[in-house]
Structure formats: C-alpha cells, structure tokens
C-alpha cells in the first residue's frame, strides 16, 4: 500500500543505508517522520496534507528560525542507528533531549573493535586551547602510540575473551574494555533538538571525532528537511548574535538608508576605548573581529557512493565478536 505520510524522495534514497564514520563506526537514518511541510502545517495548525507552495514554506521556516519559534520543528523526528567509540558516546549522551537505546554489554558480546585516529589527526596538545589539538605530531610518536594502543587492546581483548569463555558474567567481562571500544545505539530526536546538537557538534571547538558524526547527520537533515537545513546554515552556523555593546559600536559606523543601501557613516570610526566604555572586554573585541568576517558556509552533502547495506555492516560487527563455544 502506498503511504499517505509526507515523505521526501531524497530521504527515502538513504533510508536504512549505512554511512561509515571513523574506522569502524557508522550512522544510518533508519526512520524519519515529517519534513519541512510538517513544520509549516504545525505552525499554521492546518488541515489535511494540501498542496505545498515551496516559496511560502521556505519564507515561514526562515521566519520561525530567525525568531526562535521552535516548537513547529519539534514535529519532525529522526531515528538513527549509530556506532561510535565509547569516548564519543560519552560526549554525545550529554544531549538529553534524545531517546536512546544502547547496545547492552551485559546481554550481548561486545565486538572487539577499537578506534585509532588517522595519522593526520594525531596531534600534539594545543598551546592555545586546553580542550583541543595543535600541530600534527611526529610520525615516530604516532607509530609508538599505535604500538602501545595495540598492546593494551590485545590484553583487554584477551581478558574479555577469556572471561566469556570461562562463562563469567558479560557485565563483568566488559569492565576493562578501553574507551576506544565501539558501542552502538538507536538515537531518536526531533528536528529542533537535532539542530541544537549539530550546532554544537559540527563546531570546530567540538572534538574532531564527534564532528565526523555530526557532519554526516547534517547531510541527512539536508535530505529530510532541506529548507530547515538551509535556514539552520544561514541563521545558526553562518550567523552570530550581537551583544548590546557590539550593536552600539556598529550602529555608530553603518546605517541602512531608506532606499535599502547599507552605508558607512562618513568618516566614522569607533576606538577601542569607546568600545570598552560600551562594555566590551578585549576578548569581546577580538570576538567581534571574528564575527565581522564573512563566514565560509559548509555544505554537508552525503557521498552516496559510501552508503553500505545493513546486512554487510551487521556481518562485520558479528565477525568482531569473540568466538566462544558454549553449550
Ligand atoms: C565543545 C564542547 C566542550 C564541552 N566540554 C565539556 C566539559 O569539559 N565538561 C562537561 O561536563 N561537559 C562539556 N560539554 C558538554 C556541554 O556542557 C553540554 O552538556 C552538552 O553540549 C549538551 O548541551 P545542552 O545541555 O545544550 O544539550 P541538551 O541536553 O540536548 O539540551 C538541549 C537544551 O534543552 C534544555 N535543557 C535540557 N535539559 C535541561 C535541564 N535539565 N534544565 C534546563 N534546561 C535543559 C537546554 O536549553 C539545552 O540547551 C562540552 C560541549 C561542547 C560542545
């Protein structure tokens, strides 16, 4: 039977397909409910499915996003199946507005898959950001870290396998698996909260590994709700709120004239002391400078050639579970 639900051909094309992330992880959009027109229908509380007027839907969605009328976008839902290293899961789980069901290491055997960063992501500690990476580290350091990681992982795997072979409880066997071990979950969230998650997690301040997931999921949003995605890029990722002090400084410099021309006020300038008097700290002035640079906008387009079938991915996961002969 043909569905009467609103669907989007671009989303149907990837539904249930698995997109690789990092060395053993993935994100799959396993289900969704609604699209941009669901946001519009909820906002207007309208009857039936009706005919869509894309330009009207676009204008409304952009207005809602600009003015933070968020509840209509809670009417669109996404359900993902994801596999990620445990340290990524630990950052991800902080987003409390999703429904989560994680793979049970108490019930099931853990696939012994461990994350290794690619060489170009193996970096020294950042000198400027305590929570970040600096320059790429030397090849020697990478080789030595890889050797040491392998040592730990071999021992952890051997202990885990021995414990399950001895029929010791799985909930105990798993306690010393490292944070690099892959876990997986079903993760369901509405569009509003998903965009909040993506704003924080595609940001360069987020750890590179979780960003890799967020970028793929942003590509999925683009396929389910392209107008909402576009508004998110324009107003959230590409936009930046201005503080009172920043607005005061900018208002002294530029004005929008009646004919629609944005004009610099003749010879106007605002000195650092004036901005300080308006309440801007030295750091806020540096941040203002960054806000005044035209943003480079990302395009989170999925690479469909990477999409894999669920069965193939499931077989790989099953092959990584230790073989244990039990009666
Ligand atoms: C770059 C980066 C670095 C971070 N570093 C650290 C760190 O060092 N240590 C650390 O502990 N965490 C850290 N975090 C996690 C961060 O503090 C948040 O916990 C995480 O980003 C989730 O954000 P959220 O609460 O807005 O999202 P969600 O939990 O998805 O919530 C979405 C929104 O719902 C509302 N909400 C949800 N629950 C409540 C509630 N109980 N009360 C009121 N409002 C609620 C809020 O408006 C919230 O913004 C970091 C996050 C990022 C992105």
Strand order of the largest sheet: 1-2-3-7-4
Distance between the termini: 45 Å
Helix content: 40-55%
Total beta strands: 9
Which band does the percent of strand residues land in?
5-15%
| Nearest-integer average pLDDT | 94
Return Rg in Å.
24 Å
Morphology call: flat
**Uncertain segments:** none
What does the largest sheet look like?
Answer: 5 strands, antiparallel
Hetero groups in this structure are: flavin-adenine dinucleotide
CATH class of the largest domain reads Alpha Beta
Tally of helical segments: 13
Query: How many domain units?
Result: 2
Give the structural class.
Answer: alpha+beta
Structural overview:
The chain has two domains: about 10-115 and about 180-240 and about 295-320, 2-Layer Sandwich (Gyrase A, domain 2); about 245-290, no CATH class. The strands form three sheets. A five-stranded antiparallel β-sheet has the order 1-2-3-7-4. The chain has a two-stranded antiparallel ribbon with strand order 5-6. A two-stranded antiparallel sheet has the order 8-9. The protein is built from 13 helices and nine strands. β5 and β6 form a beta hairpin. It has about 325 residues and is of the alpha+beta class. It is flat, with a radius of gyration of 24 Å. The two termini are about 45 Å apart. The structure holds flavin-adenine dinucleotide. Flavin-adenine dinucleotide binds near residues 94, 96 and 196.
């Amino acid at each position: 039977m043909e569905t009467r639900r609103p669907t989007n051909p671009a989303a149907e094309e990837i539904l249930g397909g698995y997109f690789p992330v990092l060395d053993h992880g993935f994100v799959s959009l396993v289900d969704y409910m609604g699209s941009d027109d669901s946001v519009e229908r909820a906002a207007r509380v309208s009857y039936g499915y009706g005919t869509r007027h894309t330009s009207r839907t676009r204008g409304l969605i952009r207005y809602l996003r600009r003015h933070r009328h968020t509840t209509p976008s809670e009417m669109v839902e996404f359900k993902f199946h994801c596999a990620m290293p445990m340290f990524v899961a630990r950052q991800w789980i902080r987003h409390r507005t999703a429904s989560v069901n994680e793979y049970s290491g108490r019930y099931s055997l853990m696939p012994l898959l461990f994350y290794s960063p690619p060489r170009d992501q193996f970096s020294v500690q950042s000198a400027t950001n305590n929570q970040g990476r600096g320059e790429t580290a030397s090849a020697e350091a990478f080789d030595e870290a890889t050797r040491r990681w392998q040592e730990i992982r071999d021992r952890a795997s051997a202990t885990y396998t021995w414990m399950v072979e001895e029929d010791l409880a799985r909930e105990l066997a798993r306690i010393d698996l490292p944070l690099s071990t892959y876990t997986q979950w079903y993760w369901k969230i509405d569009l509003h909260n998903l965009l909040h998650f993506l704003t924080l997690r595609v940001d360069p301040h987020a750890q590179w590994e979780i960003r890799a997931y967020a970028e793929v999921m942003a590509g999925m949003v683009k396929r389910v709700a392209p107008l909402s995605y576009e508004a998110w890029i324009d107003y959230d990722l590409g936009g930046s709120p201005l503080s009172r002090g920043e607005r005061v400084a900018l208002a002294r410099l530029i004005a929008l004239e009646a004919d629609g021309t944005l004009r610099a006020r003749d010879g106007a300038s605002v000195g650092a002391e004036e901005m300080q008097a308006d309440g801007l700290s030295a750091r806020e002035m540096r941040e203002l400078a960054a806000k005044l640079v035209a943003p480079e906008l990302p395009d989170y387009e999925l690479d469909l050639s990477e999409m894999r079938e669920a069965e193939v991915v499931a077989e790989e996961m099953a092959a990584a579970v230790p073989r244990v002969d039990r009666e």
